[in-house]
Amino acid sequence: MAIGLATYVASLPRLPKQKFRDAPTGVGKSANLDLRKSLLGLAILLIPSTLFWAAYEQQGNTIALWIEQSTDRRLDLLFWHGEVPVTWFQAINPLMIFAFTPPLIACWSRSARFGREPSTIGKMSLGCILLALAYLAMAAAAWSGAPSSASWLWLLLYFAMLTIAELHFSPIGISLVSNMASNESRSTVMGIWLTTTFLGNIAAGWIGSFWSALPNASFFLLIAALGVVAACSIHLARPILRTLLRAE
After folding, report:
1. Labelling 98: which of 20, 161, 200, 239 has CA 20 to 30 A away?
2. How many CB atoms are located within 10 Å of the residue 102 CB?
3. How far apart are CA 246 and CA 243, in angstroms?
4. Is 90 in contact with 64 (CB distance < 8 Å)?
5. CA 134 to CA 139: how far, in whole Å?
6. Share of residues in the chain with pLDDT > 90 (%)
7. HEC states along the chain?
8. Helices 153-180 and 27-56, interaxial angle, to 10°?
9. Distance CA 139, CA 66 (A)
C-alpha cells in the first residue's frame, strides 16, 4: 500500500489537469432523476449482492474450520514433506486472482470480437452460479470420505471456482455502479453499493453459526443455495435493470 501511494504521489504531475466548468442549466433535475433510477437499481441488486458476499466470505470462516478439522493437509514433495498450515490456504484466492484475471479478460475480449461476450448483468448472474458450484464441490468433498480425510485437491477446485465467480461479480458490479451514476451522485451511489459487502459480512457471520448444528454437506448445500437464489434474482430482474442502469 505504501508503494502504491508513493507511485500515485510521484505520478501526480504527469496526470492531465482537471477542468471544472459550471453545470449547464437544467442539469440538476437530470442528475436527480438519474440518482433516483440508480438508487432503485441498487435496491434491486441489494439482496443478491448481499447473498453473494455472505456465501463468498465463508472462505475465511467455516471453510477455515473445514480445512483444520476435515482436510488431509499432508503433502509429500521430493524436496519437502509435511502438513500444510491452515493459514496458507488463505493465500490461494489472492494468488488465483492474479493468475486468472489476464486470461479471463483475454477471453472476454476475444468473445467480444465475435459478439459473444456475456452482458454485464449476465456476468454477475454467472458469478453467482459459479459461487454455488464452488460450494457444491465442497458438499461433494464432505460426501467423499471419512472425517479428516478429504483431499486438499477439493479445496483447490473450490478456490478456483470461487475466484472466477468473484472476477465475474465484484469488479463487474463496481464498474456497473460507477458508470450508471452521474458525476454528482457517483460517490453516494458507490458508497451504497459497498454497503452490500458490509451486510454480506454480517450475514456470513450469522450463517456461519449454523456450522456446528448442521452436517458439513448440508451446510455447504445451504451456502450453494444462496448463490442460486442470488443468480435467479438478478436474472429475473434483468429487464428492469436494463432500463434503470442502462446495462445489458
Report:
1. 200
2. 9
3. 5
4. yes
5. 9
6. 55
7. CHHHHHHHHHHHHHCCCCCCCCCCCCHHHHHHHHHHHHHHHHHHHHHHHHHHHHHHHHHHCHHHHHHHHHEECEEECCCCEEECCHHHHHHHHHHHHHHHHHHHHHHHHHHHHCCCCCCHHHHHHHHHHHHHHHHHHHHHHHHHCCCCCEECHHHHHHHHHHHHHHHHHHHHHHHHHHHHCCCCCHHHHHHHHHHHHHHHHHHHHHHHCCCCCCCHHHHHHHHHHHHHHHHHHHHHCHHHHHHHHCCC
8. 170
9. 11
**CA 97 from centre of chain:** 11
Cell digits for 36?
A: 433516483
Task: Identify the structural domains of the chain with CATH numbers, from first to last.
Answer: 38-74+83-245 (1.20.1250.20)
Q: Rounded CA gap, 134 and 169, in Å?
A: 14
181-228 residue pLDDT tens: 667 777 888 888 899 999 999 999 999 999 999 999 999 999 999 999
Residue 161 CA to residue 105 CA, distance in Å, equals 16
Bridge partners of residue 72, in order along the sequence: 151
What are the cell numbers at 180? Answer: 450508471
Query: Which residue do the cell numbers 453516494 mark?
Result: 188
Tell me the C-alpha distance between 168 and 171, whole Å: 7
What CA–CA distance (Å, rounded) separates 127 from 56? 11
